[in-house]
Amino acid sequence: MILLVLLSTAAAGAAIYMVMNDRNSGGEGSVQTQQLQRQAPIFVKIDPFTVNLADDNFGSRLLYTGISLRVGNDETREILAEHMPQVRSRLLMLFSGKRANELTTPEGKRRLSDEVIATLAEPLTEPQPPLDIRDVLFTEFIVQ
């Protein structure tokens, strides 16, 4: 009888230990799993542009560029899509004021990327929440 009580107590203790251990490791596993799960990036593709650049010593020059914007949320994607004619117009105005020699270096492209973000930071409509534009990706870029 004493042996039966000891075995039952040992089995109950082992069961409690295993259940508690599974809960603790399951919780940590869940946190680790959540950390490993990344949100898929959200991109807004803008059709390519062909614009005349500002004159320089070489005469008229052209810029052909394709752009994708990496945004932080669906709301920003929707606002940009709804106002795409305004977005394109602002970008055309920005690009047409550039000279070819400003755009042919990596630093020039980085500066242009920053200017695109600043240009699109101005509200497209009133009221509008701030747009979460995280990066400008040039998918095509030809200066001729």
Walkthrough of the structure:
The chain has 144 residues and is α+β, with helices and mostly antiparallel strands. It has 2 domains: 1-38; 42-143, Band 7 domain (Tetrahydropterin Synthase, Chain A, 2-Layer Sandwich). Helices cover 53% and strands 22% of the residues. It has 5 helices and 3 strands; from the N terminus they run H-E-E-H-H-H-H-E. It has helices spanning 2-36, 74-82, 84-96, 100-103, 106-121, and strands spanning 42-52, 62-71, 133-143. A 3-stranded antiparallel beta sheet has the order 1-2-3, with helices on one face. Helix 3 (84-96) crosses helix 5 (106-121). The radius of gyration is 29 Å and the shape is elongated. The model has no long low-confidence stretch (mean pLDDT 86). Its main location: membrane. Controls the rotational direction of flagella during chemotaxis. It is found in: Cell inner membrane; Cell membrane. InterPro entries: FliL. Belongs to the FliL family.
Quick structural overview:
This protein is α+β, with helices and mostly antiparallel strands.
Q: Unreliable runs, pLDDT <50, ≥5 residues?
A: none
Please work out how many helical segments DSSP would assign.
5
Ends distance: 96 Å
Sheet with most strands: strand arrangement = 1-2-3
Overall spatial form: elongated
- What number of structural domains do the residues give? 2
The total beta strand count reads 3
Q: What share of residues is helical? A: 40-55%
The amount of beta strand, in percent, is 15-25%
Can you write the helix and strand succession as a string? Answer: HEEHHHHE
Helix-strand category: alpha+beta
How large is the radius of gyration? Answer: 29 Å
